[in-house]
Amino acid sequence: MLKHITIQNYALIKHLELEPSPSLNVITGETGAGKSIMLGAIGLLMGNRADTKVLWDEEQKCIIEGSFAIKEYKLKSVFKAEDLDYDEITVIRREISPGGKSRAFINDTPVTLEVMKRIGNLLMDIHSQHETLQLGQQSFQLRLIDAYAANHTLREQYATDWQAYVKARKDFENLSAEADTLRQEADYVRFQLDELNQAHLEEGEQETLESEVKVMDHTSEIKSSFNLILDAVTLSDFAARVKLSEARAALSSVSSYSPAYAALLQRLESVLIELDDIMSEIESEEEKIEFDPQHAEFAKERLSTIYKLLKKHKAEDLKTLLAIQESLSQKDALTSNLDESLERAKQDFEAALKVVTATAKKLTDSRTKVFIPLCKQLTALLQELGIPNATLQIDMQPAELSAQGADRIDILFSANKGVAPRPLAQVASGGEFSRLMFSIKYVMAEKTAMPTLILDEIDTGISGEVAMKLGTLMKTMATRHQLIAISHLPQIAAKGDAHYFVYKDNTSSKTISAIKVLSAEDRVQEIAKMIGGAKPSKVALENAQELLGR
């Protein structure tokens, strides 16, 4: 449900804010006042493209922002799939800069227009008589039938079974396709694996061996350096350690005269402790150094083996080589048990196919049961809306398994007596299509949580009693779902729980479109004008009051 919308710097709209009623909202106004501009702005929240031509002030950016209450829509999984933060009050925002750059946000997270379109179309449904309707699409017709049959749980089960089937089929097909190649490569894979296994490689081994070889190649140089250090620091008569000890004694004799001297003494003692520790480690390392010809030869041969294997397998390091060994091991295990693996994959595939086929059959049976009552209800609604000879049929044919089931659905329609029903796109005129779509939305609203439904002049081509019935149906539908209806008919306007009036404001140097909520008295005047023109008569005012039930 749309809680709040802000439109800023868009076309003729400088700044507009709207807090729609949760029920039936009616928007009226003169032609060209800006009603279609509002729809264009809302369309931006549904991922429609725009350019800088939409800017009211070309030096300022355009901002369209809508807040939606989405608790009833069950969209947590959709938000998770798009890696978006879910919030029961979700905010969608679109910005268009003077330079033409467009940015989209959902709950303050930047998103692509495709993501905005997917989410926006789940939150708002704009129905215009001029748009190419989706009624002829297979997916829409199946969604209608599933909504009427209350197949939500069954569709979720089918989706789970379908995904399991697709995975099992893919696994079996991939393994089957790889089988011949795996068999041909089996001996070569085994040879490479044996060579690597016999090498007994260990991670980190190369670095250790390289370090050992460097030390053994420079044994004399290292021992000479260490002995020089030990002599200079601790062993000779003039060793640094002796002089530092003398310095400590001198500083100790004066340390009691000042806290600063005491601190310096403490630091010098720390230096001596650290120096003693360093010398101890150097002495220990010097004692360890002993050239071992046999170990040196072993280390060099071992490194040679590692380098050859790295070059052969085009590996950058030992870690990569071990990963190749693991991959070869997996291939070898798969090849060794290829027939068993193929049979197991085939059994999994056939089992998954059996499960998804059974669920598809349940879905087909559930759908078939509602064909007659659905057609009956839609026909009755169409007759109420001025199509007395309306006829609807649903034709279903078996189809290959798909994400939507195993059914091919065609809704057939005829608006005229003696004319056989045909597929919707072939037979319905614009006005008939609009009324049929409204009837379908009315039926779906009884069965499911629909998004905010925006009806753009769906009442075009009707009047009188039919208009009254359409208004009554909208009012009933709005008890369960939020409706925003743009209308030129007083019969529709009078049914609104909230009535908004769009008008042009020419008081400043540049025309702007504005909107205001009409008070009870303003509604009488506006509906009377819709009946009798700019200067309504007393009769028109009385008719307006009658329509409003006063």
N/C terminus separation: 30 Å
Task: Fill in the CATH topology of the largest domain.
Answer: Rossmann fold
CATH architecture of the largest domain: 3-Layer(aba) Sandwich
Number of helices: 19
Strand share of the residues?
Answer: 15-25%
Lateral arrangement of strands in the main beta sheet: 2-1-4-5-6-7
| CATH C-level of the largest domain | Alpha Beta
Number of domains: 3
Major sheet, described briefly? 6 strands, antiparallel
CATH homologous superfamily placement of the largest domain:
P-loop containing nucleotide triphosphate hydrolases
**Rg over C-alpha atoms, rounded to the nearest angstrom:** 40 Å
**Structure classification:** alpha/beta
- Percent range of helical residues: 55-70%
Shape: elongated
- Enumerate the spans where pLDDT stays under 50 for 5 or more consecutive residues: none
Could you report the average pLDDT, rounded to the nearest whole number?
87
Number of strands: 15
